Amino acid sequence: QERNVILETFDFLRRGQIDANLENYDNNLQMEKEYDFIVVGAGTAGCAIAARLSENPKWKVLLLEAGGPESLIMDVPIVAHFLQLGEMNWKYRTQPSDRACLAMNNNRCNWPRGKVMGGSSVLNYMMYTRGNRRDYDRWAELGNVGWGWRDVLPYFKKYEGSNVPDADEDLVGRNGPVKVSYVNWRSKIADAFLEAVQQDGLQHRDYNGHIQNGVNYLHTTTRNSTRWSSNRAYLYPLKGKRRNLHVKKFALVTKVLIDPTTKTAYGIMVRTDGREHKILARREVIVSAGAINTPQLLMLSGVGPAQHLREVGIKPIVDLAVGFNLQDHTAPAVTFTTNATSLHFEDFADPTLVNRFNRQEGPYGSPGGCEAMAFWDLDHPQLKDGWPDIELFLVGGSMSSNPAISRAFGLKKIIYDSMFAEIEDKELNAFMIFPMILRPKSRGRIMLKSTDPQKYPLIYSNYYAHPYDVDISVRGVQKAISLINYPGFKKINAKVWNRRIPTCKGIEFGTRDYWECHVRHFTFTIYHYSGTAKMGPATDPAAVVDPRLRVYGIKNLRVADASIMPEIMSGHPNGPVFMIAEKAADMIKEDHGFKQ
Ligand SMILES: Cc1cc2nc3c(=O)[nH]c(=O)nc-3n(C[C@H](O)[C@H](O)[C@H](O)COP(=O)(O)OP(=O)(O)OC[C@H]3O[C@@H](n4cnc5c(N)ncnc54)[C@H](O)[C@@H]3O)c2cc1C
């Protein structure tokens, strides 16, 4: 067996070397002075757009990424939490709040973002959802022609390479670059969750299919227990084969160059290899820097709210509501103890797990312990096919299963010690249910702190500015807790972990007021920041881009990433961002007369 471990470890290292060789293709790139298209940010959207645009061999495309290469170790699903502690995370934090994030250091929530090839698709938990068809019909209803469900469905199918065997066959994509699979490892806790939810009345079904309201084990953006980032999906197959696509890593774009007279974007400034370069774009600049960096870069370039820009010392070129409309999904996790075996950190030290991982078995393939999800329309429980307002997702471990979790969230020590240390000390089996609100009504804002592109922008999450968000979160918590009354969860002796939050002590445990206090403390972001360069019709004063994703008032400049969502969709957004990217690439090709 020992020999096996050594051989299997070599095999893993060999796979890692293959990936490293692919990344190394970009190392000696000499950037040219001019390209047809410049794509800023190699995240979920950026990799897809650059790959699609460079399908035209006559176009030269430059993809610029502030972070470095992806590596195989980042793509072992169980290590997901740890990535947030490394250099591949921008490590943003929200501004302090007195009504949310109260359990976090200085009342500030950590907001991780990928700074690496693949962007946040390398940091994420790989949970794969499309959202609800009504989300997109709503986008269309807001005036975004071409974004209704029937319009966007072909793009979902185009990028999906799903091998989920029981997916609704007429809706799923089987041959696209983004691989989607079930996880090969499941705990008894996940089985119990599925049972309890069905006993509560939901059906076991493909929540990415015709009806979203239902429960299932996770669909994940993985194949063979390996993370399928946008970099792996779209760029690895092209390495060494597509000479008209240039990829530059460790390249921070500091400004989009815009002629103030003609209001035309004509290039970018980028900091790389120790100096500042000016690179020109013959056709377009496409900003895909994500919902925090995209508004920052636009504002640094003179595109944003004129008054705010003047206050920080930037001359506005066009007055637009950049940075407003910030949305996110939060989920105040509830902890339960059980007599079923949950994830424990020590278990991962077993070296034979590498063997099992190479054979696509075992817990290394689990995306940070996330295992199953269910969707409810709490306001319309009688509807079988409602528009869900709450998702409950199950993690087969607790805050103390892994030291990286509480650090990643930035939990206050006093909170951790009084609530979770006992689980760790007594090695109890415990799991968490995250009640994620799907259609929040609060809106936050990204603002510039400085004209220095290396200084982080200010993030005002504005969580719970709207009372609906508190209310639906509390109802989500109550829904999660109600599940333990069903035989599925009784079988594993699931019990709510009732250690009190020290700063909620005056409030009786289990009452609505207590759960509100809980919600305001454990405002866990699920990292779905979006909406900060809102897509909308010309009549919408809050719109930054039009339905073809062109920035209003500026020629040759588009935004294509999570920023453009007018309203956040009801699920996890990585898939929808791929859809946005695929559609953006097609619109750009069309606008520049390229037919395939
Ligand atoms: C920890 C975490 C967990 C998540 N879990 C899930 C999940 O399980 N399922 C799911 O569907 N979604 C999840 N998400 C959200 C999802 O991954 C994002 O919504 C999606 O990746 C956003 O894509 P994007 O293209 O808008 O931005 P990103 O993927 O963040 O890409 C932006 C890229 O631009 C680069 N960049 C930024 N500024 C500059 C600049 N000035 N110059 C050059 N490059 C720049 C960044 O480094 C980054 O690589 C998670 C996100 C995180 C952070």
Chain oligomer state: single chain
- The best one-word shape is globular
Ligand inventory = flavin-adenine dinucleotide
Distance between the termini: 53 Å
CATH topology of the domain at 100-110 and 165-225 and 328-443 and 452-521: Glucose Oxidase, domain 3
Average pLDDT number: 96
Major sheet details: 7 strands, mixed
Secondary-structure-based class equals alpha/beta
* CATH fourth-tier homologous superfamily of the domain at 100-110 and 165-225 and 328-443 and 452-521: Glucose Oxidase, domain 3
Q: Any idea what the radius of gyration is?
A: 23 Å
Helix percent reads 25-40%
List low-pLDDT spans: none
Q: Per DSSP, what share of the residues sits in E-state strands of 2 or more residues?
A: 15-25%
CATH class of the domain at 100-110 and 165-225 and 328-443 and 452-521: Alpha Beta
Helices, by number, come to 18
Q: Tally of extended strands?
A: 24
**CATH architectural designation of the domain at 100-110 and 165-225 and 328-443 and 452-521:** 2-Layer Sandwich
